[in-house]
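Study this fold:
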Amino acid sequence: MFTINIDDCMFELKDGAIKHIGASNKSATAKLYDIESVDVREFGDERVKISCEDDSSNTVEIALDPEDAHHVAREIERLEEESGIFE
């Protein structure tokens, strides 16, 4: 399941193209649940890409700096030690 929450954004559809109109200070949140596959790979020369896909072929990709990727890996290891979620 893929959810997206876009606060107070307005889009224009013109000649088949979608364009954001209005102020550029808006935000959005996207969430992907019930992941079927996860892929981790190099992205360019300086990034790590994490790609997650559900059974409906919805995909979320995240490109991380190596430092952020290390942080994610450490946090997962911490959860493995401290939480029962991996049992």
In short: The CA atoms of residues 52 and 81 lie 24 Å apart. The mean pLDDT is 90.
